[in-house]
């Protein structure tokens, strides 16, 4: 029997921009996603944009009832900044009503809300002023955080500031999957710096808030980094990837400072971001109470030819490297490697002060999932059950070995919209039918998971 600790949090995660819908209704102003879709709809899979997400703005009660039927005891979503403060200053009463109703509905059904503030959805008005590149975004975010804590802090006792800050930096400033889709390493570093400063300021706001008696976290995608070989060049490349992708976030969140090696390398290359005098103190005084760890797949690294550190095209580290034992999810192309979850769990225990943490996202995206529908109309997602099981086994081993993990959230509860991929890959315990009024139907994994939760574990 794979048994989990008492009071373990079993849940699922989504985000406001990926699930709510009502993208420009009831006072909400556009985020970068809403505007980008207006400009280039053809870039979004099947032309489905951010207004066609899974409609929870209208049917959250149905979702909560389904969560209850599955025995979930926790659930994460985010607040849309552009809904709560459409112009950055004015409180939108309709948003307050919506989120209070939503969180209350969860609580009354025995499901603890875990609420995140930023899930890649930069307000358009702020993007026009430079987005995270502009220092003023830090103050705007701190104000938004303060308002959110004031309005919902009596209901919500577990908060997160950012979801996967690496992703909006990487995809927006050294890739082209997020707005403003530029490729500029120096600008990316400035964006990263301001994001983390905004995180620390939001933590400070929480601790000052009248409702600040709960806990606050950041959610990081902690994909463990593995070098291709023992060769010095590959080891160095892995160290750089780890420094940039993992430690620059984890060290700030848990220790309140950037890794020395990173600062030295950036200084030598004249790439240090612009900072202000008291920033160091802000980082140092505002470390997190707990962490969320999103884990999908590891990073396999090999040294690029003639590498000089810092490498300002970080994606060069991952190109063209075929790991012979790789198991690939054929439906999404991502590697399946449950041991990675064990490794990161033990690293948090051993190198990050035994910080309490939970799996805030893990999951398996599958395209054209309707092909697995059985004669009773249920999607038989046995591949997802196998995926979750393997990851839970790795997680349980880490917990037995002392890693202080207190929960597991699947991405996601009901299929939701995903950025440029829209509904290409489905992740939910529940199917959402876009052509049939967003109708929800449970997949096999939801029944399997309901049993796991009831027993707080499972047999083989
Ligand atoms: C994470 C994000 C989620 C979600 C998930 C699945 O990085 O936090 O927002 O989208 O990945 O990835 P994708 O939707 O790209 O398949």
Automatic annotation (TrEMBL):
Task: State the Gene3D superfamilies in the record.
Answer: Glycosidases
Q: Which GO terms describe its cellular component?
A: cytosol
Q: InterPro entries in the record, alphabetically?
A: GH (IPR017853), Glyco_hydro_1 (IPR001360)
Q: Where is the signal peptide?
A: none
The GO terms this record gives for MF are:
beta-glucosidase activity
Look up keyword Ribonucleoprotein and say if it applies: no
GO biological process terms, alphabetically, are: carbohydrate catabolic process
Give the transmembrane ranges: none
Q: Which family does it belong to?
A: Belongs to the glycosyl hydrolase 1 family.
Q: What is this protein called?
A: 6-phospho-beta-glucosidase
This protein's UniProt keywords = Glycosidase, Hydrolase
């Amino acid at each position: 029997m794979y048994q989990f600790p008492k009071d373990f949090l079993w849940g699922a995660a989504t985000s406001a921009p990926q699930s709510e819908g009502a993208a420009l209704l009831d006072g909400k102003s556009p985020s970068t996603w809403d505007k980008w879709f207006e400009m280039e709809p053809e870039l979004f899979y099947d032309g489905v944009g951010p207004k066609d997400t899974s409609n929870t703005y209208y049917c959250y009660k149905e979702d909560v009832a389904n969560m209850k039927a599955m025995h979930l005891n926790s659930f994460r979503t985010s607040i849309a900044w552009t809904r709560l403060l459409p112009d950055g200053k004015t409180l939108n009463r309709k948003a307050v009503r919506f989120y209070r109703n939503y969180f209350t509905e969860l609580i009354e059904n025995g499901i603890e809300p875990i609420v995140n503030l930023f899930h890649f959805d930069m307000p358009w008005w702020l993007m026009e002023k430079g987005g995270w590149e502009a220092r003023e975004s830090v103050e705007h975010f701190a104000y938004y955080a303060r308002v959110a804590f004031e309005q919902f802090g009596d209901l919500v006792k577990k908060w997160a500031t950012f979801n996967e800050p690496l992703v909006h930096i990487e995809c927006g400033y050294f890739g082209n999957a997020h707005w403003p889709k530029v490729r500029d390493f120096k600008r990316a570093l400035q964006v990263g710096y301001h994001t983390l400063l905004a995180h620390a300021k939001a933590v400070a706001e929480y601790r000052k808030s009248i409702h600040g008696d709960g806990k606050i976290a950041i959610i990081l995608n902690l994909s463990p980094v593995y070098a291709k070989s023992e060769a010095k060049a590959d080891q160095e490349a892995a160290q750089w990837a780890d420094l940039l992708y993992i430690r620059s976030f984890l060290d700030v969140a848990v220790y309140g400072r950037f890794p020395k090696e990173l600062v030295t390398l950036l200084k030598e290359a004249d790439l240090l971001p612009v900072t202000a005098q008291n920033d160091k103190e802000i980082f140092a005084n505002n470390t997190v109470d707990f962490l969320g760890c999103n884990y999908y797949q590891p990073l396999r690294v090999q040294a690029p030819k003639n590498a000089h550190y810092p490498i300002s095209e970080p994606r060069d580290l991952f190109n063209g490297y075929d790991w012979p034992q790789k198991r690939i999810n054929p439906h999404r192309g991502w590697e399946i490697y449950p041991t990675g979850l064990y490794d990161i769990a033990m690293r948090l225990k051993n190198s990050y002060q035994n910080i309490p943490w939970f799996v805030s996202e893990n999951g398996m995206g599958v395209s054209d999932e309707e092909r697995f529908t059985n004669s009773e109309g249920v999607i038989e997602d046995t591949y997802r059950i196998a995926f979750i099981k393997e990851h839970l086994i790795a997680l349980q081993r880490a917990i037995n070995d002392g890693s202080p993990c207190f929960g597991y959230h699947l991405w996601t509860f009901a299929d939701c919209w995903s950025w440029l991929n829209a509904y290409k890959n489905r992740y939910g315990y529940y199917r959402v039918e876009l052509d049939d009024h967003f109708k929800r139907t449970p997949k096999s994994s939801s029944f399997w998971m309901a049993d796991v939760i009831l027993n707080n574990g499972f047999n083989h």
